[in-house]
Each structure stands twice: as structure tokens, then as C-alpha cells.
Write a structure and sequence with these properties.
- The chain is an all-alpha fold.
- The protein contains eight helices and two strands; from the N terminus they run αααααβααβα.
- Helix content is 61%, strand content 2%.
- It starts with 6 loop residues before the first helix and ends in a 15-residue tail after the last helix.
- Bound molecules: calcium ion (CA) (3 copies).
């Protein structure tokens, strides 16, 4: 039994919870892909919108390359423990391509969030995303946004997002700003 106590384990556990939605017992491909539709819907986008399709493709690649191999007991579901162990194994096996796949997913996620299409995420877009998808409070999200906005210019650009993605999925540092990528940590 893997215990969820380290910083990285806690973060992976949160990703698991997002992917698992309300399903008991583990995650399946259709549910992972439906995350794209759900996020799009939060921004009023139809399921065939290009931004939604892009996120669905990135999630499908992540499923094919990483997640589907994690069902080690072969019961057709990737449960919490299989997911956390599997993500750590993917990172150890080939961190560069693992981070490339995660980066593509996070970029697609953020492009849905970039409602005014100016290429960066402002605080209002960030707050809208997580208030609608995670139900986080605006005050907590303001703190998260300030952590991720490394140069303090009021927007998150692709470099800041990429750095946060790398930290989120690899760092054990409890103070890493990237820990806040998916809202309050
Ligand atoms: Ca399983
Ligand atoms: Ca924007
Ligand atoms: Ca910035």
C-alpha cells in the first residue's frame, strides 16, 4: 500500500481526483477524455470547438503513452495507488517525453482558459477557470495566481506555465511555486 504523504504524492493525488471525477474505483479512458468537454463547457465552448479538440487529443496521448499501462492488476480501472506509482514510473523512465506530453496537456488546458485569446492568462481568466471547475474561492485563487506569476506582471505566459508544469509533476519541494498550478495547494 502506497501512502500519500510526500509533496509529489499529494499533487498526483489531486490530478487523480480531477481525472476520476465522481467514479468509484478508478479511472477509464472515456472519463479522462470527457475532462476536455467539461472544461470547455465551463467556458461556454461546444464539444467540437478546436480548443476542446486540442485538449482531448493531448489527454488521449497521455492516456495512450502513460495512463493505460498503469492498470497493473488488470481490472480495467486505474486506481489511485496505480496512478501515483505509474506517474512516478513514467517520470523516472523518460522525464523529457513525459514532461512534453504533460506540457501539451497543460498548454491546451490553458488555451481554453485564455478566453480573450491574447496568449496569456490573466487573473480573471484564472479565477473563472478554477471557481467553475474546482469551486475554489477567489481569495485562495488570488494567492495561487500570485505564486505562478513569477515576474509579477499580472499575467501567466507560456514560459511561466511550462515552469509550473515541470515543478508540479516532478518537484518534492513544498515551496515550489508550480505546486499551485491547479489552484490552492
Ligand atoms: Ca487496476
Ligand atoms: Ca487572456
Ligand atoms: Ca507573468
Amino acid at each position: 500500500m502506497t501512502t500519500v504523504d510526500g509533496v509529489l504524492d499529494r499533487k498526483l493525488d489531486r490530478v487523480y481526483a480531477m481525472l476520476a471525477a465522481d467514479r468509484e474505483g478508478g479511472i477509464v479512458e472515456s472519463e479522462v477524455l470527457s475532462l476536455a468537454d467539461n472544461l470547455g463547457a465551463a467556458f461556454g465552448l461546444p464539444t467540437d470547438a478546436p480548443k476542446v479538440s486540442r485538449l482531448r487529443s493531448a489527454l488521449a496521448e497521455l492516456w495512450q503513452a502513460d495512463v493505460r499501462h498503469m492498470d497493473t492488476d488488470g481490472n480495467g480501472l486505474v486506481d489511485r495507488e496505480e496512478f501515483i506509482v505509474g506517474m512516478r514510473r513514467s517520470a523516472a523512465h523518460d522525464q523529457e517525453s513525459y514532461l512534453r506530453r504533460l506540457g501539451a496537456m497543460v498548454d491546451a488546458w490553458m488555451s481554453i482558459c485564455d478566453a480573450d485569446d491574447n496568449g496569456v492568462i490573466d487573473q480573471q481568466e484564472f479565477t473563472t477557470m478554477y471557481a467553475r471547475t474546482l469551486g475554489a474561492s477567489p481569495a485562495d485563487l488570488a494567492v495561487a495566481f500570485a505564486k505562478l506569476d513569477l515576474d509579477g506582471n499580472g499575467t501567466l505566459d507560456s514560459q511561466e506555465i511550462r515552469k509550473a508544469t515541470e515543478e508540479y509533476y516532478t518537484s518534492e519541494d513544498p515551496e515550489a511555486p508550480g505546486n499551485w498550478l491547479f489552484g490552492p495547494f
